[in-house]
Specification:
Blueprint lengths: L3 H12 L8 H10 L9 E6 L4 E6 L4 E9 L9 H15 L1 E6 L11 H15 L7 E6 L1 H15 L7 E5 L11 H4 L9 H12 L22 E6 L5 H13 L4 E6 L14 H17 L2
Parallel strand pairs: 3-4, 3-5, 5-6, 6-7, 7-8
Antiparallel strand pairs: 1-2, 2-4
Helix pairs in contact: 3-9, 4-5
Length: about 290
Amino acid sequence: MASQQLAKVLEIVRSQPSNPNASVEKMRAGMEKVAERVAPDIKCEPVDAGGVVGEWIVAPNAAPDRAILYLHGGGYVMGSIHTHRAMIARISRAAQARVLAIDYALAPENPFPAAVNDATAAYKWLLKQGYKPGKLAISGDSAGGGLTFSTLVALRDSGTPLPAAAAPISPWTDLAATGASIVSRAAADPMVGREGLAPMANHYTGSNDPKTPLISPLYADLHGLPPLLIHVGDAEILLDDSTRIAERAKAAGVDVTLEVWPEMVHVWHVFAKILPEGQQAIDRIGEFIRTHTR
């Protein structure tokens, strides 16, 4: 039974105009409008992160030697540091870590592999700043959750020391849309529809096969990745994007914690201001990252 707070979230989500045929410009403008205000004690400092537009988002309790690279969601075509700043600030506070958020290049202007290139460049920049791999983590939501996996795989393949942990949130890991939950959760998911996913996938993949491993990390070799905490809601059409990649990662010997949260919607963490489960999930991510970056 949905809580009063969850009912309010669902009301907010359903009240937002939804048009899968909207232009990229209109989608971006719409997403930018719903950004939440950041708590006044959070420090936000723009930075050039190895040629990538970035911003340090730092809670007052953040340890100076612990950092998270955060990759925002938005289907690879929209979203920004601005749209996710408040949620990232909550993660900084929960993890007691500095967070580097980046504006990776968006499609269709910059299709694959632009986002992967920017994410790996920003991570390598953190290493050059003196951060130790054992004190680093990567997190991201939706497309940024899938990009978290792709970044880890690309870093591993380049011989770059990997972070101590990663926390993908509602990750989009299969741009070929082959998961059964695409259909089985369609009526339950108020936030993501298959008709909206397809054009974003096309924008990002360009002329590439959507099952290319660094586009859809579900199809990647996942051996050697750091411990993972994967969050996904039971009311998501992307549920199987999490359950299947968790199974594949475990089969490859990765330490995986998969948490399927009952009744929760896509990236419910973003509603932490009004949804208790949103803050609880952020606190869980913070605990996980603190444990692995001590």
